[in-house]
From TrEMBL:
InterPro entries: N_methyl_site, Pilin-like. It comes from the Bacteria. The lineage of its organism: Bacteria, Bacillati, Actinomycetota, Actinomycetes, Cryptosporangiales. Coiled coil: none annotated. The chain crosses the membrane at residues 21-42. Pfam families: N_methyl. PANTHER family: GENERAL SECRETION PATHWAY PROTEIN G, PREPILIN PEPTIDASE-DEPENDENT PROTEIN D. This is Prepilin-type N-terminal cleavage/methylation domain-containing protein. Keywords: Membrane, Methylation, Transmembrane, Transmembrane helix. It comes from Cryptosporangium japonicum.
Length: 169
């Protein structure tokens, strides 16, 4: 036991006591540089994932509306309930209220479904679905008349989309 104590005393006298201040500062600087690189990359991945979720919500909406159309004798939904689809399911109802379909909306996303008959003045029956994420900044618009999805964005000056009556998501 006394030999162990002597060894510890001689070790303290020789200067083997730990890291120098310079070594610690170098480590802190290296960690800071790594964080400065990683945080913006993470934020970009997060925005991309939110935009992809909004795009997926639009595709799911198309599937639900078309299923509703088929189940209700070629009639598009007469009403949609769900506060613009923010963080909840949209419920589609027919004019007679016989059948309903649900559109699941991802957390943080919004979805709008409008009849193109009333929104754009066309006589061809159809609909438009707009979906966007609160932080992703892109708006995805599906028009049943053309069968295409269009991407608008990525900034807050999104063009006025008449089919969905959105000026600034």
């Amino acid at each position: 036991m006394t030999a162990l104590l002597r060894w510890h005393r001689t070790r303290r006298r020789t200067g083997d006591e730990g890291f120098t201040l310079i070594e610690l500062l170098v480590v802190v600087v290296i960690i800071g540089v790594l964080i400065a690189i990683a945080v913006p990359l993470y934020n970009n991945y997060k925005k991309g994932a939110q935009n992809t979720a909004a795009q997926s919500d639009v595709r799911n909406g198309v599937t639900a509306v078309e299923a509703f159309y088929t189940a209700n004798g070629n009639q598009y939904p007469a009403s949609v309930t769900g506060a613009l689809g923010k963080d909840l399911d949209l419920k589609l109802s027919g004019a007679t209220g016989t059948a309903t379909e649900k559109i699941a909306v991802s957390a943080g996303n919004q979805l709008v479904l409008k009849s193109t008959n009333t929104a754009s003045g066309t006589t061809q029956p159809g609909y438009a679905i707009c979906g966007w994420s609160s932080t992703g900044k892109n708006v995805y618009v599906y028009k049943s008349v053309t069968g295409k999805t269009t991407k608008y964005g990525p900034d807050k000056t999104t063009p006025n989309i008449a089919e969905c009556k959105i000026t600034d998501p």
